[in-house]
Amino acid sequence: MKPKMHSVAPNATQVRQRVLSGMRPTGALHLGHYHGALKNWVRLQSEYDCFYFVADWHALTTHYEDREVVEKNVYDMVIDWLAAGLDPELATIFIQSRLPEHAELFTLLSMGTPLGWLERVPTYKDQIEKLKDRDLATYGFLGYPLLQAADILIYRAGFVPVGEDQSSHVELTREVARRFNHLYGRESNFDVLAQAVLKKMSKSDAKAFEVARKSFQQDGLETALGQARALIAGCEAFGAADRERLEGYLRGTGKAILHEPQALHTEVRKLPGLDGAKMSKSYGNAIAMREEPAEVERKIKRMPTDPQRVRRTDAGDPTRCPVWQFHQVYSKADTQAWVMQGCTTAGIGCLECKQPVIDAIKKEQEPWRERAEPYLSNPKQVHWIVEVGTERARTVARETMRDVRAAMGLTY
Ligand code: TRP
Ligand code: SF4
User: Fold this and answer.
1) Residue 229 and residue 175: Cα distance in Å, rounded?
2) Angle at Cα 102 formed by Cα 97 and Cα 103, nearest 5°?
3) 203 is catalytic
4) Catalytic residue, candidates 4, 132, 199, 203
5) How far is it, in rounded angstroms, from Cα 65 to Cα 67?
6) What pLDDT was estimated at residue 217?
7) Which of 39, 72, 200, 362 is catalytic?
8) Mutual orientation of helices 350-377 and 333-344 as an angle, nearest 10°?
9) Is 125 in the active site?
10) 3-class secondary structure for the chain?
11) Residue 182 C-alpha to ligand 1 middle, in angstroms?
12) This prediction's pTM
């Protein structure tokens, strides 16, 4: 059941930009996860070189006392990913803790990261406020955005699909990369190395590159920058490291050892929880992706509606009703019009109104159940997918760490 490659998939001579994202394994994934993130991950896999990982260390930053929570959910979460349509042949799926390189980069980055950068991350104070029942005055919790920076930088990711709430972490990642490149990015023989890379190009392309580079550096011509970049992108003989080096040579900044990523916020219609608050297992307002159909029906039927619509004969206002938000995710325009009209004129009852939502969720779940089934009955296959993904990730992580160690003078 492999999704077809998109028509927008880049052709062979273009390098697919890397996308990286992670999710904490703290419980069965629910519809909020699917509509808020996973659906987008699936969409991205045919356009980008996607790396998706189980952020188990991250889960431990808040759940360090209950390791079973994390342990139980690691492979379950991967099954939910596969059920949603992630294709292990398109995307690289792996587990953070299997790659100690993340921890090594985290440690090295921590040496020069000012404490204030971490204390100022908005999620830091927010979460401590919100999760009052946990003691989060820990070193790991303060440091976790830097661990996230290491996760991202180690794969030289171009894009990081995250919710708005995580923007500040991507911003921190950019600052950390910039600082690192500034401190360690200059190699003494940089120009010589860049020249060696240029030899891999055809003579005429190399010459055109030099002309464009000079015109960019002397006159700041953006068009020249674009031309030079196109030449880099078009040269099939280059590896990722070659491209990084020439990019630094081109801009005169030396070698960009770590790559500044961009947050990727995609327009998503947020699905709230059953009570209208954010969907979360801990609030008891969630529907799991693999919830039984009978349970879906029961939960939706018990959903609160417009509190001012007490009797069937009272007219309601959908904007006060969480069911309406479900319709906005699940229903087409004609059904939405039917709800709007029926609710505001007391023409339909709430149970009637909920039925299309129930049907739509059950239908949405069918392919998930179908895809999950073989993995549930054969867990080895899931382990194998993670195994392959982890080794693929390791190859990239190792290469970055070699460059990082060399840049920091740790090669004795
Ligand atoms: N911190 C993210 C969260 O809590 C998960 C995460 C960890 C992540 N590392 C990442 C997301 C790297 C994107 C990129 O949801
Ligand atoms: Fe909500 Fe629908 Fe009832 Fe209106 S009719 S209050 S939108 S459930």
Assistant:
1) 23
2) 85
3) yes
4) 203
5) 6
6) 83
7) 200
8) 140
9) no
10) CCCCCCCCCCCCCCCCCEEEEEECCCCCCEHHHHHHHHHHHHHHCCCCEEEEEECHHHHHHHHCCCHHHHHHHHHHHHHHHHHHCCCCCCCEEEEHHHCCHHHHHHHHHHHHCCHHHHHCCHHHHHHHHHCCCCCCCCHHHHHHHHHHHHHHHCCCCCEEECCHHHHHHHHHHHHHHHHHHHHHCCCCCHHHHHHHHHCCCCHHHHHHHHHHHHHHHHHCCHHHHHHHHHHHHHCCCCCHHHHHHHHHHHHCCCCCCCCCCEEECCCCCCCECCCCCECCHHHCCCCECCCCHHHHHHHHHCCCCCCCCCCCCCCCCHHHCHHHHHHHHHCCHHHHHHHHHHHHCCCCCHHHHHHHHHHHHHHHHHHHHHHHHHHHHCHHHHHHHHHHHHHHHHHHHHHHHHHHHHHCCCCC
11) 25
12) 0.83
Q: How far apart are CA 310 and CA 236, in angstroms?
A: 67
Strand order from edge to edge, sheet including 159-161: 92-95, 49-54, 18-23, 159-161, 262-264
Q: What is the pLDDT along the chain (412 residues), one digit of tens a residue?
A: 444 333 344 444 456 899 999 999 988 899 999 999 999 999 999 999 999 999 999 999 988 888 888 888 999 999 999 999 999 999 999 999 999 999 999 999 999 999 999 999 998 888 888 888 878 889 999 999 999 999 999 999 999 999 888 999 999 999 999 999 888 886 667 778 888 999 999 999 999 999 999 988 888 888 999 999 999 999 999 988 889 888 888 887 666 789 999 999 887 778 999 999 999 988 899 999 999 999 999 999 999 999 999 999 999 999 999 999 999 999 999 999 999 999 999 999 999 999 999 999 999 999 999 999 999 999 999 999 999 999 999 999 999 999 999 999 998 9
Query: In angstroms, how far is CA 3 from the centroid of its own chain?
Result: 20
Distance (angstroms) between ligand 2 centre and the Cα of 352 equals 9
Task: Determine which residue's CA is closest to atom 4 belonging to ligand 2.
Answer: 343
Provide the pLDDT for residue 270. 83
Amino acid at 147: L
- The tokens of 4 are what? 């077809």
pLDDT (0 to 100) of residue 3: 41
The answer to whether 404 touches 109, Cβ cutoff 8 Å, is no
In 3D space, the residue among 286, 400, 376, 327 whose CA is nearest the CA of residue 82 turns out to be: 376
Instruction: Note if 214 is an active site residue.
Output: no
